[in-house]
Amino acid sequence: MIGEIDTPSDSEFRGNLRTFLRENHPGKRPQGSAERLEWSRRWAAVLADRGYAAPGWPKRWGGMELSLSNQLVYHEEMAQAGLKPHPRNGVFTVGPVLMQHGTVEQCERFLGPMLRADELWCQGFSEPNAGSDLLALRTRAVRDGDEYIVNGQKIWTSRADTSDWMYALVRTGTQSSRQNGLSYLLIDMRSLGIDVRPIGDMTGTARFCETFFQDVHVPVSNRVGLENEGWAVARATLGHERSTAFVGHVIQYRKVLDELEQLAKELGSNSDPILRQEFAYLESAVLIMRLNGLRVFGSVTRQVDPGPISSISRLFLGQFEKRLHEVAMGVIGAYGLVGRGDPLSIQRGRWVWGFLSTRGSTIGAGTAEIQRNTLGERVLGLPGDPGMPNAD
């Protein structure tokens, strides 16, 4: 188990949740991407309709409003059952942002369909020349009465081609205004003037897209927060989910590492002394992830902002994912040359796909360089980048 011994409340909740998952488990996830998405959407709707969605959200908006220890149990049991509570992780980013910075009307309009996965969301932050330096973004929104006219381009937009809405940062101030000239808009992806183009990657899939905006009309009522104050909205706290979701990662990779170790035994790769040393490191790394996650959880329990501890977790996870799949390539040897779908592939090519996809683990959701900068400035006290806003 991830946490300490269950309290009576935790034990009762764990039992109820296990019963619910046993009676309502959606079955094995389909292989096709379209079928898998619909399967995930149906599961999200079941969770929302039965009161088992969004463990940290207020009940007013369809959440469970669980204690932090119950949230730990929730994520732990979901991971043990091999289930995700929603097809898009972004719902637990934009949802809390709306609750904190949005209007009641925005919450009433968007949160219910968002939670049931009736409407899917994507994030529109990165641009071709504004990735790590997000404050250099150039997509512009010019106000015209009760609307903004948006022109520009976003890139690396995960699942934009199957999304209904985008939460986007746009420039409403001058280009030199940096963080003081950004606004946070909710953009209907069905609007005229939006062109979404999937980007193929080396896994053979197209999980990312580039999105072009040409004279796209967005109602001012879809702005979250004040004009030119979108940077604060974008950096808004993500609520309790951010502090407890580490549980799913730890359990997921505990299972994946067990499976890789078993495969090494079956293939005879476990006799290689170098691979045995790598497995020793990975065993230690899973334990480190668990302990650091509990440290984050402890901070939140004491009502202390975990701050840069979350950057430690993100940085460590990205490095771990890459190294795990590099070890997997050593385990399967020449089979690493065989792609997914090939009848000769090991376990349907899962390790090859994982190796290719985790090349981006230290880029997405905040690059390793950004995480190191945060740790350098806020933990080690090193001088900050004068071009970046104060993180506090």
H/E series, N to C? Answer: HHHHHEEEEEEEEHHHHHHH
Q: End-to-end distance, in Å?
A: 34 Å
The low-pLDDT segments are none
Which CATH architecture of the largest domain? Up-down Bundle
Figure out the total of helices: 12
CATH topology of the largest domain: Butyryl-CoA Dehydrogenase, subunit A, domain 3
> What's the CATH class of the largest domain, please?
Mainly Alpha
Cα Rg? 22 Å
Helix share bin: 40-55%
Overall form = globular
Mean of pLDDT: 85
Adjacency order of strands in the biggest sheet: 1-4-5-8
In total, the number of domains comes to 3
Largest sheet: 4 strands, mixed
| Binned strand content | 5-15%
Keywords:
Butyryl-Coa Dehydrogenase, subunit A, domain 1; four-stranded antiparallel β-sheet; Butyryl-CoA Dehydrogenase, subunit A, domain 3; 392 residues; four-stranded mixed β-sheet; 8 strands; Butyryl-CoA Dehydrogenase, subunit A, domain 2; 12 helices; alpha+beta; globular
